[in-house]
Amino acid sequence: MFGVNYLGHFLLTVLLLDRLKTSGPSRVVTVASNSYRRSKLDFSVLLDHRDSALGSNYSQIYRKYCNSKLCNILFTCELSRRLQGTNVTCYSLHPGLIRTQLGRYLGIWMKVFVMPFFYLLFMDPKSGAQTTLYCALEQGIEHLSGHFFSRCTLQLNIGSKARDDAAARKLWDLSESFCGLSKTHKLVSGDGSGFS
Ligand SMILES: *[C@@H]1O[C@H](CO)[C@@H](O)[C@H](O)[C@H]1NC(C)=O
Ligand SMILES: *[C@@H]1O[C@H](CO)[C@@H](O)[C@H](O)[C@H]1NC(C)=O
Q1: Catalytic residue at 119?
Q2: What's the pLDDT tens digit per position in 10-66?
Q3: What phi and psi, each to the nearest 5 degrees, are found at residue 111?
Q4: How far is the CA of 62 from the centre of ligand 1 (A)?
Q5: Transmembrane ranges (predicted)?
């Protein structure tokens, strides 16, 4: 979950950064989720890879999903800080609940439980793309780089864990290590206080 939802996008973005800068104005839009609110990011667990197994029940799997979505938001915070003074801006967003194929491997009873909500409350994919399109295309939001959006609107009252600059920096360093990008960082296990 961490690799697919977060780390792969981190690496792709970092590899594209020079190109994004020379072809600015450009934007990095990261699709996160309000489910970051249920996240509980533990750097010591990430560090020794105990977080890499999906878990055996839905609540564990959902927690990993929420954690990966918090990572998407923290990544956007740190990225905007690193992009100050360039013509590259970045945004993260909650797209809403959308009728996609995301739940195609749910067990049959979970599907039976989820289906009514799925058809009554979830948006079709076209509606679900609107906040993403807004962040990619809306003119004049460049000064809001690094922020989180929902329903095509800036969200300022997001939880403190999604505004934690120290965690965002730590996550960035850790991600560089995981991707083999940092030569200077030494991994220190524990609570991550070895990071600077
Ligand atoms: C899921 O598994 C974890 C760890 O085995 C356990 O602590 C938790 O209570 C389980 N949750 C549910 C809803 O079964
Ligand atoms: C940003 O874009 C403006 C307008 O295209 C340009 O004048 C400026 O040099 C660019 N700044 C950087 C840092 O690339």
Answers
A1: no
A2: 999 999 999 999 998 999 999 999 999 999 888 888 887 766 667 778 888 889 999
A3: -65, -45
A4: 11
A5: 102-122
